[in-house]
Amino acid sequence: MTLKQNNEFLWNSRIAGDTHVGLSRSSNEDSFIQIKQDWKDVIIAGVADGMGGHEFGEVASFLVMKYFISTWNENKEALASEDAAVHFMDEALQTANKHIYHVNKELNIRWCMGTTATIGVFYNKTLLIAHIGDSRCYAFRKGKLQLLTTDQNWCEEMVSSGKLTEEEANEHPLSNMLTNCVGALPTLSIEYSSHPVHPGDRIIFCSDGLSSMIPDSLIEEQVSESKHPADAVDNLIKHALIGGGSDNVTVVAAYF
User: Fold this and answer.
1) Partners of 194 in the beta sheet?
2) What is the pLDDT of residues 91-142, one digit of tens each?
3) Which domain holds residue 239?
4) How far apart are the first and last CA of the chain?
5) Domain CATH for 229
6) C-alpha neighbours within 13 Å on the C-beta side of residue 49
7) In whole angstroms, how far apart are CA 249 and each of 50, 129, 174, 245?
8) Total of domains in the chain
9) pTM higher than 0.70, yes or no?
10) How far apart, in whole angstroms, are the C-alpha atoms of residue 189 and residue 108?
11) Please, are residues 95 and 71 in contact by the beta-carbon 8 Å criterion?
């Protein structure tokens, strides 16, 4: 695979994103990022779902995206390897984490702000995902939807350890409590995963305002039927609202 072929693969991709406050919330604590710069031969896409008292969740998710953009603008090197991509993402996320943690500590905030972050860097036909919390990334390939991330919350921990069934965990009052988030601790634990990207793949990033409102089977159906990423984003948000809309909902779609 030549550099020109790799570049054309990214150049020919399409990307779209949007967010909705939902039907029950007064403010939107979600943020998303979608950067496609052909001259750097890379795409950045992802979502963050903030939490905290008053409007602090909105601030936390915004800060993650702010530091991603500022770190990206300061980065002078092409992200041509996994090491380079990890270094870039780690710098952005650890800086955001330190900022949010410092604000929580200095202001002695009763309901500390924090945020999930599920963000991907596409380079050389590869997707590198940095994952914190329970936002998600899916890949749709050859008619099938696959979840590429694992929810970092109490529900998933209880199910994976065999202590509760999925049904029992989902009904538990602690089911949505995160076991990892940006801003909770001085040093952030980031789960990285690398995935090949093929022509025809459709990659979806979303907050749990989508994944908690509709089943994966409906996400698969809508992504399959949507020929353009903007259509997929609109249709998925619409179905999340039909499904209850009890949370902010954010979706970013990249088509290759």
Assistant:
1) 128
2) 999 999 999 999 998 988 778 899 999 999 999 899 999 999 999 999 999 9
3) 3-255
4) 16
5) 3.60.40.10
6) 26
7) 12, 20, 21, 8
8) 1
9) yes
10) 23
11) yes
